[in-house]
């Protein structure tokens, strides 16, 4: 707050000037007045409503220390690991080295035998999202609180334009995010194209801190765009140094598939999977990749759910194209059999797009992660409860698409990938945090345990166990698609912005304490793009100078 900065600066000045006792008393009276005024003039609307977890319902607990020391843990970054202490002050990592000594005013956490890692960054979420005639049950407080309990300390959500207006969409999401309790960033969806949208994209990048734009190749009649718009969007992204993202499914073919299922009398959740098979995801992925190659812009494919899409990404990357593939945790650990469950309520929970695939796709996506074909793991957390899912009880096309995952991701990736020996501990940090920070250009502020980085830290006990259940999760959902899953590797402590927000299975967070993180353009994915363009131009051998024939 402004008044806190004022107090610190002025108090230091008074001490430096060795002010007299009367002057100091007057200053302290001013301090008291400012604090009292601030308390009156800046009420916490969420505090008044009693919204929050633990002691911090009305803000940061008074006992919270701005100084932390994490002792004796194995500090893990994406490139290396070492046994060291981590000292934190005022939300920033100050030092990472062995045997740090501190005073009695420092809170000490013993991490012996445990891993100290960067907090997770979820690149793909939908909080407070209006979709398919309803709105997700998790907003920017409940969704983020769930994330923190699961070891994720930052996420990037998708702003949806309002009647095509990026500015109106951004302003709407700014309001939604006022109740946030952890750091977050924004992607921006593009749902139409004209000169106004083009100019607004510039505004978003240059002034609002957005460096990525998403194009839906599915949801015909709602969010879907055509190839002409996709090309225009790709070109604009390239000029701005922004990253183009695609939801890759052939929307026209999906529409036909849905009509086919209804004609066959298949109206239940299984019709969702049958109407949008993996071949349609593969086709759209290939098309987006080829158009991006034509423009020469980096491409990010969200929620890669199938072997078909993954193989297109693998082929493009092998040829040197800059394509990022993001699987989501549901695609890594679940299969489509749930959609055939005889109980509609159970089956409908698993409806998302692209659909969760048959057994075999999950293992292939895990393998692609372990070999570097796919680069990071998101969730596509988009939470609709059983009542909302029931909108489509007679027609699967009306079931709101989405599953949970923001709280479960870190545990499931550890158990599925690290415990199985498919990836190393450093790989885990890269896949769940560091690579996301690099792609969206906030590294090393985020995604690292380094001096100068934000103190977003987790302590993971590899020997502790977890069990996922709707009874104990922090989402507002009434069910959990990972219900009953157990495993090893538990996040025991989450530190966000230097504050301990999760410890001893207790969450201590308050709405309004999160920060919007601006993400600058021209990430590492743009390195050398200009040279590729120059090589292309020099290879054309055109235009050819031809003598004009006499007529």
Automatic annotation (TrEMBL):
The record's listing under PANTHER family reads: COLLAPSIN RESPONSE MEDIATOR PROTEIN, HYDRANTOINASE/DIHYDROPYRIMIDINASE FAMILY MEMBER
Lineage start: Eukaryota, Viridiplantae, Streptophyta, Embryophyta, Tracheophyta
Q: What UniProt keywords apply to this chain's record, in alphabetical order?
A: Hydrolase, Metal-binding, Zinc
What modifications does the entry list under PTM / processing? Carbamylation allows a single lysine to coordinate two divalent metal cations.
Coiled-coil intervals in this record? Answer: none
This protein's GO cellular component annotations are: cytosol
Extract one GO BP annotation from the record: pyrimidine nucleobase catabolic process
Which GO terms of the molecular function aspect are on file?
dihydropyrimidinase activity; metal ion binding
Query: What residue stretches are annotated with the Amidohydrolase-related domain?
Result: 115-501
How is this protein named in the record?
Answer: dihydropyrimidinase
Q: Which InterPro entries match?
A: Amidohydro-rel, Hydantoinase/dihydroPyrase, Metal-dep_hydrolase_composite, Metal_Hydrolase, Metallo-dep_Hydrolases_sf
